[in-house]
């Protein structure tokens, strides 16, 4: 293959760079799904962003259709409403929440396809989405104004204390999801979505770098304190 035909980013000083990436899902919440090299992640975003959007949208549409079928079937919907309203309030509250690791394992099983390049980027996107959802939940609890509220759809779940919790009653949320059609944001300007994704990647990398430096500085300070005590 001629070098001029290769995508920028994989060629350095007229040399083809081939990187092998291994996907690892760790137990630590702060490193879940994250294992991609910075440069490689950016290249994947540029090439496979549309594929990732279609994969995630397909799963969401599939689930939305099932809820829509339930809502449109008057007999089944009436039966479900009667069942739900007859359930004890405490039981309903417990049924409206689930541990994050349980939900994430199900989503990963649905979306991860062995030996598919896009799967790694999907996992990376899930991580970013989870962090955004956690930030949104914390902002609501603190009473802060969510900057992107006008641009982003309101989440139907919040994340906290290792749990996913529905933000409203099940019946209201099913009706909302069934009636709302999913659509990709900024569909007329795909370049805008790519730039936004790359911006998020840079922000995450800077935050990770700052956190790493803080740990290193903290460790050095602790060693210095121990050394002074020994003196």
UniProtKB/TrEMBL annotation:
InterPro entries: MATH/TRAF_dom (IPR002083), TRAF1A/B (IPR055327). Residues 1-22 form the MATH domain. It comes from the Eukaryota. Residues 187-200 have a biased composition (Basic and acidic residues). Residues 187-231 are annotated as: Disordered. This is MATH domain-containing protein. It comes from Papaver nudicaule (Iceland poppy).
């Amino acid at each position: 293959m001629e070098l001029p035909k290769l995508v920028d980013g994989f060629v350095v000083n007229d040399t083809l760079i081939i990187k092998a990436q291994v996907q690892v899902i760790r137990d630590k919440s702060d490193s879940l799904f994250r294992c991609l090299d910075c440069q490689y992640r950016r290249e994947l975003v540029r090439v496979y962003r549309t594929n990732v959007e279609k994969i995630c949208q397909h799963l969401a549409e599939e689930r939305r259709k099932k809820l829509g079928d339930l809502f449109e079937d008057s007999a089944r919907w009436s039966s479900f409403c009667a069942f739900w309203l007859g359930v004890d309030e405490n039981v309903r509250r417990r049924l409206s929440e689930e541990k994050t690791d349980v939900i994430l394992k199900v989503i990963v099983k649905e979306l991860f396809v062995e030996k598919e390049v896009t799967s790694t980027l999907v996992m990376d996107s899930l991580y970013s989405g989870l962090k955004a959802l956690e930030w949104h939940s914390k902002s609501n609890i603190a009473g802060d104004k969510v900057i992107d509220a006008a641009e982003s759809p309101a989440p139907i779940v919040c994340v906290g204390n290792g749990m996913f919790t529905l933000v409203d009653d099940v019946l209201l949320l099913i009706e909302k999801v069934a009636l709302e059609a999913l659509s990709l944001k900024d569909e007329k300007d795909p370049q805008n979505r790519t730039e936004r994704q790359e911006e998020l990647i840079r922000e995450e990398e800077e935050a990770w770098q700052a956190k790493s430096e803080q740990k290193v500085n903290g460790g050095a300070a602790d060693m210095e304190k121990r050394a002074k005590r020994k003196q």
